[in-house]
Specification:
Layout lengths: L1 E4 L2 E6 L10 E4 L10 H9 L4 E5 L1 H5 L11 H13 L6 E6 L1 H9 L5 E7 L16 H6 L2 E2 L4 H7 L5 H9 L4 E2 L1 H7 L12 E6 L7 H10 L3 E5 L10 H18 L18
Parallel strand pairs: 3-4, 3-5, 5-6, 6-9, 9-10
Antiparallel strand pairs: 1-2, 2-4, 7-8
Helix pairs in contact: 3-8
Amino acid sequence: MDVALGGFRAQLERPQIRKFAWPIVILPELFTAPRHLTIMAGHLIGRGWEVYLVDIEPLLTRTLVRGQVGASSFAVLADCLRRSLATIGSDIVAAGHGLGGLLALKLAEAPPVRAGVALAPLIPGVNSPLLIQRNRWAFWRSRTAVLPTRRKMLELVSDAEPFQREALIKALRPMDTSAVMEIARGIVKLEEHQAPRMIIAGETDSFAPWREAERLAAKIHACFISLPARGHWLIAGRALERSIAHMQRFLVQSLGEEVLLLYDEPNSGEPEA
């Protein structure tokens, strides 16, 4: 079901039997759309989570911060997301992939986000191969990057099942990259916070190197999991099931009974008083 959350669009998916008190909001990677997250959403829905798949592309386009000298595109984006997600009307769990993963970690610094999970997040101070263009200077003068080369596209989705890759590549789209350039330059900072946070990274990921992800996790006191022989695309293929299992265990252990919907036991047949 398509819904409007403040200034952006989202797709809401509900499980047949809801088992958790708060929904999971999933944010996408650079150049990707909510449709790239549908397989991940399906696994979470099957476990009883209500899921919002957020389209941040229109919001990214509006974060050029025209006329605001010194304003941070990433900070504006995170603030817009936080205010818009508050319209859900309940606490939430934020999760994301790549750019969306770093946003999820940032959003977990304040309500209504109770926990943040990042799958292969972009790392502050690390220039991801997603941003490398033939004409580097022309790229840095522009806020909109063309899509990666065919070789990089194939590397990006290499962990997806072979029959999925062509459709995933065709669905990629050019996007405003002003916030991502700030990440690469190390401008974006994450703060320590009491809300539980988790980073999952593939050990063969060249877009978000796992050693750098591990350092980031240590810096912000987040739980860290590395997946051997897995790359960047942790949202489909064989890596996804393991990612979801780690994510589920972390959320239930960190948030406790508060995140569970506890139903009354069926009446044993005794007459009411």
